Amino acid sequence: MLAYIVRRVLYAIPILIGVNLITFALFFVVNTPDDMARMQLGARRVTPEAVEKWKEERGYNLPLLWNEKAEGAAKATQTIFFQKSIRLFVFDFGYSEDKRDIATEIRTRMRPSLALAIPVFLVGLAVCITFALLMAFFRATYLDVWGVVLCVAMMSISTLFYIIGGQFIASKLWHLVPISGYAGGFDAFRFLILPVLIGIVSGIGASSRWYRTLFLEEMNRDYVRTARAKGLAESVVMFRHVLRNALIPILTGVVVVIPLLFLGSLLSESFFGIPGLGSYTIDAISAQDFAVVRSMVFIGSVLYIVGLILTDISYTVVDPRIRLN
Amino acid sequence: MPVFSTGGFIWIALATDLLIWLLVAVVAGYALYCRRHPHLKVPWARVFRNPAGIASLVVLIAYLTVGLLDSVHFRLALAGKDGGATAYSTEVLSFLDLGLSGLRGRAEKTYSAPLATRSYAKEQMELPDGKQVRDFPRLRSGGAHLKDEGDWGADVAGRVAKGLGYSIAGFILVFLLFRYFRKKKPEIPWGAALWSVGAILLLAGPAFALSSGYHVLGTDKVGQDVFYSALKSIRTSLVIGTITTLVLLPVGVALGIMAGYFRGWVDDVIQYVYTTLNSIPGVLLIAASVLMLQVVIDRHPEWFSLAAQRSDFRLLVLCAILGLTSWTGLARLLRGETLKLSQLEYIQAAHAFGVRDTRVLSRHILPNVSHIVIIAVVMDFSGFVLAEAVLSYVGVGVDPSTNSFGVMINAARLEMSREPIVWWTLATAFTFMFALVLAANLFADAVRDGFDPRVRIGATV
Question: How many whole angstroms separate alpha carbon B356 and alpha carbon B354?
């Protein structure tokens, strides 16, 4: 087990290098730092001096991959690739366009993101499993048919609509909660309740339908027939047999997203003005702050890989038949 | 950019137009191929026997018709230029624009509510006797034919009745047509299709009848008719949903099959590539690519002679980026399936006979995974349509000058805080998008049920 995890972590390194190469190619090779400088400065203020100054302030005045002018090891280190890309590996993100330390920013913004994402994840999972279990229990009745119809309809509604509609009804019509904003401590509850609800509702459609399929598949198995043949009550069959076994694919399927909860949800955070990592990313994209976008790409891929490793481990935990080696 | 010259106008073939028509040709070819091959005809017949499938197909066809009409572009010659070279308008029009020329030309100054006769915003006006008053001005075209605004109710009712008349006439025509078809193909649920046609006609008839005199769904900030923008946005959605698949398919299918078939280092490399791509959060990868694309476009203004070509290029590249970031799911599915297939006896037999790898792949593997490909294509469509709206909100979607649901939502979202509330743009965009995505989802379900034997067994519990 330990050897397996070590191997997986080692395997993560080439993937992260690949991610780095992609972002490096996107941000520095397709467009040179000169282009970025021109875009950031705006058409009017572009002079060669201004571009040089912009590049120097941000350390973009170095060669891309190989510094001929430097001495010894500095030939490789005094380059944009080393300074901007390799340094991400030690979580040294540098500074954003408004000259703030990105690492500090990420640490402070992580908390509101988690405060929003964790309730959405946990309650959402519980709601979807309950709904799916209900549909599976009442399979082939009107409840099931209309449940599926409802799921498909809810899947077809854009997330934007849930957010805008929710904001409109809860905040503008009924004045129940503030329309957007955030506060620390227990005050945060007032601001978080609506985004959490919307996050849960917008996820119900797709997940419930998928879980229902899993439940139905499980109910076709032989052991379920055996359980019924023994004369067990249908509720016992559902909860003791079907639910437990169907939870295996459900839980192992959602493990991969757990680390990504740190990144928050892009849309809710920016609509509700929650100062988390999601809104940070959106702001960075619209301000074309490449340093931040690059850092978020890197963090995102690290978290994803952590999620993959956790998924593998969770398989062995819930299903003793699986051995990792 | 090919340009074909004729009399009073020149054809402009935008890149996405060409791809759309190529896609239409491919689908037509595939349909002919399916008719001749029973193993493909049977699952499709199952799809068409599904009432939900056929009803959603009717809706999709309606959307597709609008989209295709909007995919033939040309520039009209400017009047009053005789002798010498003819000058052409820089405005690129489509058949849809010609059909809706009544809607296109009648812009207001700013917002106006659906069917309104007066503007949303107050304005300083001069009365005939020279006095200045601040009031809601009459619209330039919305209800301009009314001498007395008191006639509004009667006029609207009259137009709705006329529209419904057209709807009923059209419905009877379709009904008779379907009755004829029903005799030929009784197994297809024509009733479900008829319901769908009826619903579309019921909405379309009055809408078009009213749109000749009013702005049925209001106007947006710059006074553009919202009904018109919504109809124009359909093409963008369809382009995003279909051309993206065109990009995704070759990559996903080729890499997925190769990884599963050759195994060894090929599998390792392909798995490495898709894990790497997958590990970058989708929105961020797309955002990064689009931001970079933006710089490229800004740097090369000489590539595009028309604004329409520039925004079309951006749409096309957005499709390519979406496609290149989302082939991984399909590739993984196909890899798994190919791993299973290549263990089967008939593949072993092919190897024993000395059949070459390329031939095994094309003759034995590809046809046997094609159902997965078809299911994936129809399932992905609705996802891309929804993604477009989100991406446009983030600011990395289509060009702001392109008509799209995302752009409409993004522009209207800020107006929610106004008093009285400007709800019509949002409501229109969401309704049009919802109908399209719902139809696509239902059709995708029908296709999956038709093609995937495992699901059908599961559903009969």
Answer: 6
Residue of A nearest to B413 (CA): A164
A170: nearest Cα among A31, A274, A272: A272
* C-alpha pair distances (Å), B293 with each of A30, A42, A60, B282, B317: 9, 17, 20, 16, 8
Cβ separation A300–B278 shorter than 8 A: no
Residue (of B344, B364, B368, B366) closest to B355 by Cα position: B364
CA angle B54, B58, B62 (to 5 degrees): 165
Q: Which A positions 9-28 lie with beta carbon below 8 A of chain B? A: 14-15, 18-19, 22-23, 26-27
Amino acid identity of residue B453, one-letter, is P
Residue predicted with more confidence, A19 or A87 = A19
A196 near A116, Cβ under 8 Å? yes
Residue B459 confidence class, pLDDT cut points 50, 70, 90? very low
Cα A316 to chain centroid distance, Å, stands at: 24
Residue B420 contacts A where some CB pair is shorter than 8 Å: no
What phi, psi does B50 have (nearest 5°)? -80, 120
> What strand order describes the sheet that includes B9-12?
B3-5, B9-12, B73-76, B93-94
pLDDT in tens, A90-109: 777 777 777 778 888 888 88
Query: CA of A245 to nearest chain B CA: how many angstroms apart?
Result: 16
The whole-number pLDDT of residue B460 equals 39
Q: Which helix H or strand E contains B142, and what residues bound it? A: none
B455 contacts A152? CB cut-off 8 A: no
Mean pLDDT (whole number) for B55-83: 82
Q: CA gyration radius for chain B?
A: 26
Non-local (6+) Cβ contacts of B366 within 8 A are B253, B257
Q: Which of B149, B74, B93 is nearest to B118 (CA)?
A: B149
Point out the residue among B272, B287, B438 whose CB comes nearest to the CB of A293.
Answer: B287
Set of chain B residues whose Cβ sits within 8 Å of the Cβ of A296: 281, 284
Q: How far is B457 from chain A (nearest CA, A)?
A: 9
Interface contact A152, partner B, CB < 8 A: yes
How much of chain A exceeds pLDDT 70, in percent? 91
* Torsion sign over Cα B18, B24, B28, B34: positive
pLDDT confidence of residue B82: 54
Residues 6+ apart with CB under 8 A from A245: A218, A221
Structure tokens at B125: 């006006």
Which chain B residues touch A219 with a CB distance below 8 Å? 461
Q: Is A171 on the interface with B (CB under 8 A)?
A: no
Write out the DSSP string of B303-334. G-SSHHHHHHHHHHHHHHHHHHHS-HHHHHHH
Cα–Cα dist B255/B263, whole Å = 11
Question: Which helix (H) or strand (E) covers residue B38, if one does?
Answer: helix B38-49
Tokens of B297: 């476009």
Q: What is the largest CA-CA distance in chain B?
A: 100
Q: Which amino acid is at A294?
A: R
Listed in sequence order, the residues at least 6 apart from A282 whose beta carbon sits closer than 8 Å to its beta carbon are A266, A269, A270, B394
CB contact under 8 A, B291 and A290: yes
Shortest CA distance from B426: residue in chain A: A161
Does position A123 have pLDDT exceeding 90, yes or no?
A: yes
Q: How far is CA B74 from its chain centroid?
A: 20
Among the listed residues B390, B315, B326, the one whose alpha carbon sits nearest the alpha carbon of residue A282: B390
Residues comprising chain B, all counted? 461
Is residue A224 within 8 Å of residue A237, measured between CB atoms? yes
pLDDT in tens, B125-164: 777 777 777 777 777 777 777 777 777 778 888 888 888 9
pTM summary value: 0.88
pLDDT of residue A65: 67
Q: Which residues of A touch B281 (CB under 8 A)?
A: 260, 263, 296-297, 300-301, 304
